[in-house]
Design goal:
The chain has 233 residues and is α/β, with parallel strands linked by helices. It has a single domain, classed as Rossmann fold, CATH 3.40.50.1820. The protein has 10 helices and 8 strands. A 6-stranded parallel sheet has the order 2-1-3-4-7-8, sandwiched between helices. The chain has a two-stranded antiparallel ribbon with strand order 5-6. Helix 1 links the parallel strand 1 and strand 2. Keywords: Hydrolase. This is Alpha/beta fold hydrolase. InterPro entries: AB_hydrolase_1 (IPR000073), AB_hydrolase_fold (IPR029058), Sec-Metab_Biosynth_Hydrolase (IPR052897).
Length: 233
């Protein structure tokens, strides 16, 4: 059999947000004929988020491009060993190696890098400072939208940040990486370093950490490139 373009896409969100933020990407991909599913991962623990993702992967009718934003990159790195996954796309995302977690990846920030305004844990959950949220997470979104995101934050479980990857899917699956060059949550040099390590096909875009919201067409375009660039026998 020859090659054909993958048509199934599964989107995984990161911390502090939910799956509704993918709407623009969903609409763009759907217009182009993709079948798109969105994981509502609870962000309580890595194990739980991987289970939620694998449940969606189990329901797919063929090979999948699995996409993660931010902490969602950890989830797809662990869940992406699922047999239905043919390619991985990291969107301003963490791409850990075996034994790594968000906690280990952010433990030693480079000098001068912006520090995300994460408040001290409350009962095992993290929030971002609401006043500082727009500048750090969503600087290129309309002020009203950024304020809504700040006020509708999903509690991010400390256990999710500490969840370590056991078998990185990028070691056996091709990957793509979109670096957001104006990101103030994950420093762009760290994004580039993780992308290089995974051997990803890298694209850059001038955008905030909320690139999937501010530039959905560009994110969808990279996902489509991954779908087209992954031959299936």
């Amino acid at each position: 059999m020859g090659t054909f373009t993958l048509q199934n896409v599964v989107l995984v969100h990161g911390g502090f947000v939910d799956g509704s933020g993918w709407q623009g990407v969903y609409e763009s991909l759907s217009r182009d004929g993709f079948r798109v599913s969105i994981v509502q991962n609870p962000t309580l623990s890595l194990k739980g988020d991987v289970e939620a993702t694998r449940q969606v992967l189990d329901a797919q009718d063929g090979p999948v491009v699995l996409v993660g934003h931010s902490y969602g990159g950890v989830v797809i790195t662990e869940a992406g060993t699922h047999p239905n996954v043919a390619a991985l796309v990291y969107v301003a995302a963490f791409a850990p190696d075996k034994g790594e977690s968000v906690s280990t990846l952010i433990a030693d920030p480079p000098p001068g890098a912006p520090v995300p305004p994460i408040l001290p844990p409350q009962n095992g959950f993290l929030f971002l400072d609401r006043e500082k949220f727009p500048a750090s997470f969503a600087a290129d979104l309309p002020a009203g939208q950024a304020a809504f995101m700040a006020d509708s934050q999903v509690p991010w479980g400390v256990a999710a940040l500490e969840g370590a990857v056991t078998e990185p899917a990028w070691r056996s699956k091709p990957s793509w990486y979109l670096v957001a060059t104006d990101d103030r949550m994950i420093p762009p040099p760290a994004q580039h370093a993780m992308a290089r390590r995974t051997g990803a096909t890298v694209s850059e875009i001038a955008a905030s950490h909320s690139v999937y919201l501010s530039q959905p067409e560009a994110v969808a375009s990279l996902i489509a490139q991954a779908a087209a660039g992954t031959p299936q026998q």
